[in-house]
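A quick aside before the break. I want you to see a complete sequence-to-structure record at least once, exactly as it would be stored in a machine-readable document. Don't worry about memorizing anything.
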Amino acid sequence: MSDHLALTIVFEPGENGWVIASIPEVAGVFSQGRTRAKARVNVIDALRLMLSPEPAGDDDRRDREQLHLTIAA
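That is the input. The structure line, written in tokens, reads:
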């Protein structure tokens, strides 16, 4: 099965020439960089961190299923 999830990176000018990047579809995912390319790399890292799975404890009985996302542009 193949489903697509479309996300958007929004770039805005920041202070002192920095570029601010965010992904509005995922609350709290934002970063910055000296260039647009670096801001893109950094916001993708922030997305990866935000979506990192919480560790399962010994008493966690919830069923889990891996979901693999590929970031492509």
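Two observations worth writing down. The longest strand covers residues 10-13. DSSP finds one helix and three strands in the chain. We'll return to this after the break.
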